[in-house]
Each structure stands twice: as C-alpha cells, then as structure tokens.
Design brief:
two-stranded antiparallel ribbon; mainly alpha; 201 residues
Length: 201
C-alpha cells in the first residue's frame, strides 16, 4: 500500500486538473525513481496537449477574424438592396461585389481545409507546371473591385510568360493572401505594385 501511494497521489492530482487550466503539472520529487519518470512522462504529454490546445484557440480566433469581413460585406450588400428599389445596373454591381466576397469565403474555407489536412498528416500538394504570370493576373482581376472601392490602383508588371512547378490552388491562395493584405494595409488612394520576374540563381 505504501509503495502504491505515490501512484495514487499522481492519480488524484491528474483528476484535479481541468481543461481550462492546462498549465498545472504533476510535481516531481527529484528522486529520479520510476515514479518521477512516470510524472515527467505525463508532464511531457500535458505540455504537448497544452500546445495543441493553444494552437487550436489561435487558429479559431484567426479564422473568426478572417470570416468577419466578407460576411459583413455580404450583409451590407443585402441591406443596401432591400433599402429601396434598385436599377438593373445597381443590382448587377451589388451581385458582382457579392461574388467577390463569396470567392473570399471560399478561399478561407479552402485554407481551413488545407490546414486541417496538413495537421492530420495528409499529403495534399500537387506538383505540376503552372503559368505564374497568368495566375497572378487572374487573382488581380478577382480582387480589383475590392481595391477600387478603397480607391487603390493595382499595377502588374511581368517579364513575359513564366512557369513554375507547384500546386495551382495553393499558389493562387498565396497570391490572394498577399494581395488581400496589400489592399487591407495600403492607405486609401494608394498604389499596389506587383512584379513577376525571373531571377537567375
């Protein structure tokens, strides 16, 4: 009974730990015996669990922040349409603006799915020959209406056709993320410069 008492103490301490306070750890006596080794092993497991929970919390907060902007824009467009009768041109413009926000929501959803798959250890990247200049132009066309609303101009310079090896969907997401940040943090009436060039090694 005396020999099992340290194990019972660890069990009692483990039961007292709650998910809302993952910083608690099992005390180590310093004797370096098997009980100490068990406590250190469990503490290492708790360290990994705490890090994973913190990553999930940050991920959830970031996702919520990213989703808030396009959802607010879509709600605003709907409220504008319902405020008074609109002409066909106004309706078309509002629908086009909404499509841009839907595209943004789709990109965010794809990012979330990608991160979930990567976290699960799945290999989802494809390697194929892609036209980088065309990918950049396509993404710029998608974000142009958002930039225009803020009074921003976007200028794209390419040194001609340029191909890279990568995943087309992920590549466009990276370009979209960069352009989205540029639009978000460039002062009104500013200019965004995009250059697509080949660099020799």
């Amino acid at each position: 009974r005396r020999s099992l008492e340290p194990v019972r103490r660890i069990m009692r301490q483990a039961r007292e730990m709650e998910a809302r306070d993952l910083s608690l750890r099992i005390p180590v006596s310093g004797t370096r015996d098997e009980i100490d080794q068990l406590a250190e092993t469990l503490n290492g497991l708790l360290d990994r669990i705490e890090r994973k929970v913190q990553e999930v919390q940050r991920f959830t907060a970031d996702a919520s922040h990213e989703l808030r902007t396009p959802l607010a824009a879509l709600r605003g467009n709907a409220e504008v349409l319902l405020s008074r009768p609109r002409s066909a041109e106004e309706l078309r413009q509002t629908v086009e603006e909404s499509i841009v926000q839907y595209e943004r929501l789709q990109r965010i959803a794809e990012d979330l799915l990608l991160l979930a798959r990567l976290d699960a250890g799945e290999t989802v990247m494809r390697r194929e020959l892609l036209p980088l200049d065309i990918a950049v132009t396509d993404v710029v066309d998608l974000y142009a209406p958002i930039a225009e609303e803020k009074g921003l101009s976007i200028r794209v310079e390419t040194s001609g056709p340029l191909q890279v090896i990568g995943d087309d969907g992920r590549l466009r997401q990276v370009i979209g993320n960069l352009l989205d940040n540029a639009i978000k943090y460039t002062p009104a009436q500013g200019r965004i410069q995009i250059s697509v060039e080949r660099f020799s090694s």
